Amino acid sequence: MLSREYIRDTVRRELDSDIGSGDVTSLSVLPKNCRAKGEIVSRVPGIIAGLEFCETAFIEIDKSVDLAMLKSDGDAVSSGDIVARISGDAISLLSAERTALNFLCHLSGIATKAKNFVDAVTGTGTIIMDTRKTIPGMRLAEKYAVECSGALNHRFGLFDMILIKDNHIAASGGIDNVLSKLYAQNQPQVSVEIEVADISQLEIALKYPVDRIMLDNFKPVEVQKAIEIRNRFSSKIPFECSGGINIENVHSYAETGVEFISVGAITHSAPQLDFSLDVVLSTETPE
Question: Which of 44, 70, 215, 278 has the highest CB neighbour count under 10 A?
Answer without folding.
Answer: 215
